[in-house]
Amino acid sequence: MKKVCIFTPHLSGFGGTETVISNLFSEFDTVADSNYHLKLFCVGGYENGEWLKGIKDRKIISFGKSMFLRKIKYVFFLPFLLPFLIAKEKDAFAVVVTHPIMWYILFLFKKIFRRKYLIVAWYHFSLKNKPIKRTYLNKADGYFAISSGIAGQYRNLGISKEKIRTIYNPVLRNSVTVPRTFSDDKRRFIYVGRVMLDGQKNLRYLIDVLANVHGNWELLIYGHGEISKVKAYIQSKNLSAKIKFMGFKKDVWTSLSRVDALLLTSKFEGFPMVLNEAISVGIPVISVNCETGPEDIINRNNGFLVEKNDQSLFIYYLQKMVDGQIQLSDYLQIKNSINQFYSDNYCLNFCNALASLKKEN
């Protein structure tokens, strides 16, 4: 049995990384090569533990709820704690790590004590928008890229293409199907994610676009964050009657009745899981083509991709939907358009990527 140890720092419990890890563990034992076994190490703890429920083999080291105290504990304890934890896993085949400082420490320990396991960097962010110090970047045997854009960023930073495997991120197959609105109904769009006027999620762009869409439509916003700031901007555009805040929902997809499209206008992403999650329940998507992620997911069968400076095209697609001239309603085709990302296929890709990296090393 080949043991794969996955290391993460403190996680909120609400982010994309947690979803990816949860999905991976959820189906790994049933669809992946039985020669592999996964074990999770969450060093620093978490805020919400729902994502851990399906993960049986796990070790959680909590550093408390205070961010300040966590940082102090990381500085003083991490260089000793990580080697201690991995030293006990004598049969480890690979160590997959999501944080640069953590994979740096584990790589040095491996070299000093001549361990044979792989150190694989599994970074879940754009390297352009959240860069990694060169000291840490080079200290890994291999790299899992969660999008083709991030794979390109690694190459541009001098990482050999032989060390990079583009594995994307997994999404669970979903029996739920969310239909379109009726022809004479109000068109319904949704946004799911952290609520940010500017910054990464860039809801200002989305609100500006919607201000130019005429007819009978509404936008439902699911998530938490800068609610008051976004509400104020919506009010300044006279859109308060059309845009509603629905709060954070643990499983938003089962709560939806009829939806015409999910909208995303992020300035950057690593790999936007929300697009795949929407598509997995048959909802088409319209997204800005930020540097990494959307281009790997969106195709003519599941939605529309818009260059980030082309607001007029975004408005065009929305207006066509509102006017009933565009209606992507072949639900099975939409769902099947992301077959490569479903977790049963993903688990096999994950194992194959580890095996091929081992041969390279």
TrEMBL record:
Keywords: Membrane, Transferase, Transmembrane, Transmembrane helix. Residues 182-325 form the Glycosyl transferase family domain. This is Glycosyltransferase group 1. GO terms for molecular function: glycosyltransferase activity. Residues 15-171 form the Glycosyltransferase subfamily 4-like N-terminal domain. It comes from Secundilactobacillus mixtipabuli. CDD domains: GT4_GT28_WabH-like (cd03811). The chain crosses the membrane at residues 68-86, 92-109. Pfam families: Glyco_transf_4, Glycos_transf_1.
